[in-house]
Amino acid sequence: MSYQPIPTGNSQVIRTSSWMVTMLLLAIPIVNIIMLFVWAFGSGVNLNKRNLSRAYLILILIVMGISLLFFLLSLAAASGQ
Length: 81
Hints:
The protein is mainly alpha-helical. About 70% of the residues lie in helices and about 0% in strands.
């Protein structure tokens, strides 16, 4: 029998209705970026929401980096003509 800690405080399972509100907020431009930073680095935020927000921000940075790389490559190819 393994030890199963009892979820307390900010490690409780988030309800489906709370995830629906979270997804709704993430669908609103500008508000989504602000809320991601609040959830990722704020104190007292549920651990599940904090980890999701941090992963989302990392993914945004990766996509922006790849987009910038493609932009620079296409700019270099266009100027070489």
